[in-house]
From TrEMBL:
GO biological process: regulation of mRNA splicing, via spliceosome
Protein name: K Homology domain-containing protein
Domain of life: Eukaryota
GO molecular function list: mRNA binding; single-stranded RNA binding
Domain K Homology: 105-201
Organism expressing this protein natively: Meloidogyne enterolobii
SMART domains reported for this sequence: KH
Keyword presence, RNA-binding: yes
Keyword set, alphabetical order: Developmental protein, RNA-binding
Amino acid sequence: MSINIKNNSEELKVENGVFIHSSCPSSNSGNGQDLLLNVGSLQKPDLEYLGQLIKDKKQLSAFPNVFSHVEKLLDEEINRVRIAIFQCEFSHEPLQLPEAIGEISTHQEKLYVPIKQYPDYNFVGRILGPRGMTAKQLETETGCKIMVRGKGSMRDKKKEDLNKGKPNWEHLNEDLHVIIQCEDTENRAKIKMSRAIEEVNKLLIPQPEGEDDLKRKQLMELAIINGTFRNGGIMPTTPTTNK
């Protein structure tokens, strides 16, 4: 089956689960260049496929706000594949949530990072992961927002110094910490928050150099994002369910 979508001089064609973007030729132009987006089928997740998806996303960025639905589908497929490959050592048992009772409210917990005991350890990178993907995975699994705040939480240290003392930046005067936030009814939020706190606490335990499987996966994922990965290293092991 083939689907064609045209937008002015742009055309999107879907054939056999593959998105093909091309510029429609006009009387003053030659043949349009094709952009292949291999996101249509549930292909088996592997490093090569993830690299292709990320490359497709970069190519698609040349056409901003043209194919918003394609961008959304591509983001969802990238997220599906990267989670399958780079799942962290979080508990993969789905949360068992009861029926909502009462009003929805905001629940919040603050966990301080042991930066004084381990001043040279990169806790921020460990918690957030490449492009924030480790934190996003944890948010997806727990239903909570995960935010790193406090001194040293910003990548740009000059910007952090400039923002100190300004309204809405008061957290920069505090020690480095993680904010866990959930919007739900109290009976459901309690379960979500408990899982999130448990998993974040795992990330706050430094691992010996060379034995940190999470760091190895994060570095591999970062290399794929930057286009510098060469598939000659160790493939991440398939995660097992923690019980």
